Amino acid sequence: MTSVSMTVNGKSVNADVEPNTLLVQFIRENLRLTGTHVGCDTSQCGACTVHVNGDSVKSCTMLAVQADGSDVTTIEGLASGDDLHPMQTAFRENHGLQCGFCTPGMIMSAVDLVKRNPNPTEETIRKELEGNICRCTGYHNIVKSVKDASEKMGG
Amino acid sequence: MYSFNYERPSGINDAAGAVGEDDKFLAGGQSYLPTLKLRLAQVDKLVDLGGISDLKGISVSGGEISIGAMTTHGTVATSSDVRSSIPALADMAAHIGDAQVRNRGTIGGSIANNDPAADYPSALVALNATVHTNKRSITADDFFVDLFETALEDGELITKVTFPVPQKAAYAKFPNPASRFALVGVFVAQTTSGARVAVTGAGPCVFRQSDMEAALSGNFSGAAVKGIQTVADKLNADIHASADYRAHLISVMAARAVDAAS
Known about the structure:
The structure holds two protein chains of two kinds. Chain A is built from five helices and five strands, in the order ββαβββαααα. Chain A has helices at about 25-30, 85-95, 105-115, 120-130, 140-150, and strands at about 1-10, 10-15, 50, 55-60, 70-75. Chain A has a five-stranded mixed beta sheet, sandwiched between helices. In chain A, helix 2 (about 85-95) packs across helix 5 (about 140-150). The longest helix of chain A has 14 residues, at about 105-115. Chain B has a five-stranded antiparallel beta sheet. Chain B has a four-stranded antiparallel beta sheet with strand order 11-12-13-14, sandwiched between helices. A three-stranded parallel beta sheet of chain B has the order 1-3-2, with no helix packed on it. Chain B has helices at about 10-20, 30-35, 75-80, 80-85, 85-95, 100-105, 105-115, 120-125, 140-145, 210-220, 220-225, 245-260, and strands spanning about 5, 25, 45-50, 60, 65-70, 130-135, 135-140, 145, 150, 160-165, 170-175, 180-190, 195-200, 205-210. Helices cover about 35% and strands about 25% of the residues of chain B. By secondary structure, chain B is of the alpha+beta class. The chains are: A alpha+beta, B alpha+beta. The interface between A and B is medium-sized, with 29 and 28 residues.
């Protein structure tokens, strides 16, 4: 076992984990934060996307021990109390989800996307979301949601 | 994943000293962690290079860009130093994998893995880059040996890659639509010592297309390479594309890259 400590959604957490524990396992099973989903478990679908030190990463392709000392944000850490993050609001208002399975990853990727591209075009949004797959193929409204949020976030 | 031990040293010498015969260095892990998850590999210990600040960062001096081995693709893609000196290199990095992969994947990890469809090997070879390790310097031409094989010895650690700034360069890739790995990618560069054309994705390892290099040395235009064929005998054939199709793509991608070079 290796001891890890990190900040997750603003709270500091410490645990002893096996080195082969994935970050997503640590988040879901140790911390019981099950908003982060495991879709493909092969680094393709992006449902497990979280932010590590502000950057979007696939938490199924990172070890928990690699996140030692990092600042991690999951979908549960985006809202402030009852106030949803503008990206969450935009997904709700634009019907940016169908079954909802890919949504946490989509939103985490989209927040990072808008941080790097404050005023993204539709083309930029589609390119930047290449690492997230929606099996409902609901991309049209996902792109619309991201565009809407980017405008409200002051892009 | 099989179980393994883990160590995260903070210095290059500590890392080199920590890796034993059945151990591996871990860079960004975007290829190696999936390999471990599929149990295609097993290690006694992973020596994580993520804690070594000396391996990160980009600097420019004397007509050369130096990129630390643990610098991510995302950092290279958005670096103003890279964009202003070798825009083709930044563009190439911006099209590796997807955004999340670019936030973790590193130049050192990519070239040490030497995946036949990876983008970086073509950039290093076309730009006549030098790979620096904790032991020596290796030219890109000598570094990439064969399928997933490099000139690195056991325990040898890449510290940085240096790229001389070319007169102009560009990369054109025909990506596999699912993985975004290069079905064929061609990196071209015009340098003071002539034109260089490096092809990735098509064969078992990156290679230079010398017929195209000769044609471009007199006439650096897409038209000069469009009709030059590559022998398909030793090219890859799989469910994604036949060897003949890949051979054809080399000419098309090379012409596009040359015409786009800046």
